[in-house]
Structure formats: structure tokens, C-alpha cells
Design brief:
By secondary structure, this protein is of the alpha/beta class. The protein is built from 18 helices and 13 strands. The structure holds uridine-5'-diphosphate (UDP).
């Protein structure tokens, strides 16, 4: 018998930051709208296995998971290429196997949903007669800049990039030069060319999802719908469907970290983490360690070995340790001196669980969008420490529009060192002072607005329901045409 449920194929590009929101979208399509979902994940490195992936995403989920094998792109790119360029080329090289995967599916999907790095698969969707959606796993303002940039004239580009003037995006917050996307800066860099292409392909979708919600970014979302503003360029409908974050299951065993948090007072711990790939220089790690220690606040710090010339270096070996278990890149005796108030976790921590714990009252973050949304849904104010990708834009949004994060005076993205005194002062401010308290109250309001958006009848719930109806109507048409 012919399947009457829409079958959606979701394509996630390498990296946990892409996988998590795509997976959550897939779950919602299955559980709320009765879709069949096949989640196709492109491997980030040769050692990725399906069971590893399932563990990472805390299976089981009611969807099919397909792992596309890692594509070795050595020789296809300059070894010094930007990590995002590498990611895009891996996606491009994976298209043939995506094609054969779709062809081999028992029930051919009628819907293709890709993240921003998968828009080249649209051609395949067209060929197979599938509806095609793009999922911006970040916020609407970033989407606005990405889709708008290819349409600006040479003069406006010159003003922004060479004269360092703000980029005026119709109806949106202007994008200051110091917050702009790295991809816009150098027309000779392949990253620039790839971003232009992505910006051009976004409006070709049948719809655009974003991990945001109406009350979080009303102005930008409004501009995208307005045909006199950004809607003229982004012709496709934009569907805010957030906040989508990894759902935390109640743990079977309380981990050491959660057990430690259980013993701390409410809202007393600052969580410090730079996402899945963020790294600091040796000097910067020293300053951060001293800043945390001097602040005398409770903390959990996810540390990684220093990288002096790469803020996004991802896969590392653990550094050697000193007698007191201080990794050798932290100041001598740091772990011993701070053991009553702090926890140093090497490489990776269960972030969603940590942010969801009532003892956590602040988050010093690289402002990756998943981390940001996880902070909002748990009502935790932030200190913005952006490192790469669209994180400087996110930081500007959080500190200036949403008023839920403190800014650092030094801009880490310029390679400027953030000094220990500034860190000490800012950490105290977010954890103890009036300004921090006001931000905590503000972020709680955002948390409630996010809950409302996702609840039945809320704006994000309705957005996804609208898409689900379109996909069902399209399937019926396909079935009718087949029957004739
Ligand atoms: N994450 C985690 N533990 C870590 C570091 C990161 O669980 O030690 C998760 C985090 O909760 C988030 C994702 O990895 O869901 C990182 O995504 P984000 O967009 O914040 O940053 P990216 O790593 O993509 O820069």
C-alpha cells in the first residue's frame, strides 16, 4: 500500500552544532506531525561510526539514521583552507552518495531539508520532485545577512568591507564591520565564493526554517516577510521554529559533575565553555584561569589544550598533567587552589544537563547559537566571548538587542587578549551584581516566550504545522498524479 505520511529526508552537515538542531527538527516532525523521517548525517572524520553518533544524540529516536562515510578531501583544497570551506567541500563530495542513498530508500522521500551547508542538494530535490527546505540552525539576523550580502552592489560592499561602514540590511539591525562575517571579508578566499553561493541558493527553497522564534527576533522576522524590505530578496517564506535544543533525559546515574552541582547553592555557579570546537591561546588560558580564580565565584570550566593560531581547532589530544591534576597549560596549582569552588573538566561536558541545573547562574560562552539557545531555555544569563563563524553577530544580538549577556571590553576575535582583571570583574558582575540580576530576570522572560512559542498554538508550533500541511498536500498531489 502507498504510504500516505510525508517522508522527509533531513541532511545534517558535519559537526555536533549542526546535528543537534536538525535532529530535534526531525523528532518534532515525527512526534507532532506524523512524518517518516530519515536523518542523513555526513561524517565529520574517518573515525565517526553510527553507534558513536547514536550515543552522542542519546538514542533511541523514532527516526531512521543514515551515516554517510567520511570523504577525504585531501588534494581538493589548500590545507590551510578555512574550516567552513572544508566542511562545504565535504558536503559537495558527499552528494553522489546522498543521491544513491535516496534512490535506494524503499519509500522515496517527498521532502528534503538541508542545513545551510547542504543547499547544493537542491538540484537533486528538483530532479526527484521533492519539496526543498533549508534550515538555518542559527538566528534570523545571521540568515538575513547571509541572504542579503550577494545582492548588494559593489559600492555598498566597498563601504562595508574596505571603509568599515555598517552593512545596512533592509529593516534589520545594521551589521557593524567589527561584527561582520569572516566570509564577507576577502573576495579572493574560496569561503567568500561559497557564502555568496549559499546566499543566492537560500531564496530558492520552498521555505526557510530558523532556530529562533517570533518574540525573540520580531524586527528581523518582520523585515523578512515585508516585500518592501528584506522579503524582496528572501522570497521564500521564513518559518521560525525554535527554540530547538537537545532534550535532556533524567540521568540514570548522577555523573560526578551533576553530583557536584547538587551540592552548590542555587544560581551560584558560572559555566565556562567554548562549544564543540573553540580553543584559546596559551596566554589567554592563563588570563582566564586567573580571572576565574580572582572572581572567587563557583565555576565549571571545560578546558582544552591551547591553540595559539586557531580559535576553532577541534580535535586534540589531552595535555599532560601535573600532580594536582592541573593540565600543564593551566597555571601551576590552579586546580588545588580552586578545588573548593571549581571543577575543571577536560575536553567535553554534558552541557545541556549542566545548564539545566538550578545551581548554574551564569554562562561564559563563545556564543555558538545552540549554546545560546540552551542558555535561554534554562534562563541563564551569559558573558559573550565570541571566537569564530557568526559568533560575533550572535554576541552583538545578545548584548545589544536581547540584553541577556555582558560584553567584554576587549574583542577576543581581534586577537586581543582579555585580561584577568576584566574577566574577574565581568564574572562578578554577572553572578553577583545588580546588572547580572537584571539580565537573569530578562533571560527568564525570554525562556517563557520560547516555551510559549513551542506550545500548541504558539508561533513556532504554528510555523511547523503550516509546513507539515504543505508537505501533506504535496504528497497527496504526487499520489494523485501517480494514480492517473
Ligand atoms: N556541547 C556539549 N559539551 C561540550 C561542548 C559543547 O554538550 O563540552 C554541545 C553544546 O551543548 C551545543 C553544541 O555542543 O549543543 C555546540 O553547538 P554551538 O552551536 O553552541 O557551538 P559550535 O560547537 O557549533 O561552535
Amino acid at each position: 500500500m502507498q504510504n500516505t505520511k510525508p517522508h522527509a529526508c533531513l541532511l545534517a552537515s558535519p559537526g555536533i552544532g549542526h546535528l543537534i538542531p536538525v535532529l530535534e527538527l526531525g523528532k518534532r516532525l515525527v512526534t507532532l506531525h506524523g512524518f517518516d523521517v530519515t536523518l542523513v548525517v555526513v561524517a565529520a572524520d574517518p573515525s565517526t561510526t553510527k553507534s558513536q553518533l547514536l550515543k552522542q544524540v542519546s538514542s533511541p529516536y523514532p527516526l531512521n539514521l543514515v551515516l554517510l562515510p567520511y570523504k577525504d578531501i585531501t588534494g581538493k583544497l589548500d590545507p590551510s583552507s578555512h574550516m567552513v570551506t572544508r566542511l562545504i567541500v565535504i558536503m559537495r563530495e558527499s552528494l553522489p552518495v546522498l543521491r544513491s542513498t535516496i534512490i535506494a530508500m524503499k519509500v522515496r522521500p517527498t521532502v528534503l531539508i538541508v542545513d545551510l551547508f547542504g543547499t547544493e542538494a537542491f538540484e537533486m530535490a528538483r530532479e526527484f520532485g521533492m519539496l526543498k527546505y533549508v534550515f538555518d540552525t542559527s538566528n534570523a539576523w545571521f540568515l538575513a545577512a547571509t541572504a542579503y550580502f550577494p545582492t548588494i552592489d559593489k559600492e555598498a560592499e566597498h563601504e562595508h568591507i574596505n571603509k568599515q561602514e555598517p552593512l545596512q540590511i533592509p529593516g534589520c539591525k545594521p551589521l557593524r564591520f567589527e561584527d561582520t562575517l569572516e566570509a564577507f571579508l576577502n573576495p579572493d578566499d574560496p569561503l567568500y565564493v561559497e557564502y555568496l553561493r549559499i546566499g543566492i541558493q537560500i531564496p530558492m527553497a520552498d521555505g526557510i526554517f530558523a532556530n529562533t522564534w517570533q518574540d525573540l527576533e520580531p524586527k528581523t522576522l518582520g523585515a523578512m516577510r515585508d516585500r518592501d524590505l528584506l522579503g524582496r530578496i528572501i522570497k521564500a517564506p521564513v518559518y521560525p521554529i525554535g527554540p530547538l535544543v537537545r532534550q535532556v533525559e533524567p540521568p540514570v546515574h548522577r555523573s560526578k559533575i551533576l553530583a557536584w552541582l547538587d551540592m552548590q547553592p542555587s544560581d551560584s555557579v558560572i559555566y565556562v565553555s567554548f562549544g564543540s570546537g573553540g580553543t584559546l591561546s596559551t596566554k589567554q588560558i592563563t588570563e582566564l584561569a586567573w580571572g576565574l580564580e580572582l572572581s572567587q565565584q563557583r565555576f565549571i570550566w571545560v578546558v582544552r589544550p591551547p591553540m595559539d593560531h586557531d580559535v576553532s581547532g577541534s580535535f586534540f589530544t589531552l595535555g599532560s598533567r601535573r600532580d594536582d591534576d592541573t593540565p600543564d597549560y593551566l597555571p601551576d596549582g590552579f586546580v588545588t587552589r580552586t578545588q573548593k569552588v571549581g571543577l575543571v573538566v577536560q575536553m567535553w561536558a554534558p552541557q545541556a544537563e549542566i545548564l539545566g541545573h538550578s545551581s548554574v547562574g551564569g554562562f561564559l560562552s563563545h556564543c555558538g547559537w545552540n549554546s545560546t539557545v540552551e542558555s535561554i531555555v534554562n534562563g541563564v544569563p551569559m558573558i559573550a566571548w565570541p571566537l569564530y563563524a557568526e559568533q560575533t553577530m550572535n554576541a552583538a544580538l545578545l548584548t545589544e538587542e536581547l540584553d541577556m549577556a555582558l560584553k567584554l571590553r576587549a574583542l577576543p576575535t581581534n586577537g586581543t587578549l582579555v585580561g584577568r582583571m576584566e574577566i574577574e570583574k565581568t564574572v562578578r558582575k554577572i553572578m553577583e551584581e545588580k546588572e547580572g540580576m537584571a539580565m537573569r530576570a530578562r533571560v527568564k522572560e525570554l525562556k517563557y516566550s520560547g516555551e510559549e512559542a513551542l506550545s500548541k498554538g504558539g508561533s513556532s508550533y504554528n510555523s511547523l504545522s503550516k509546513v507539515a500541511k504543505d508537505c501533506e498536500a504535496n504528497l497527496l498531489q504526487v499520489l494523485k498524479a501517480k494514480a492517473q
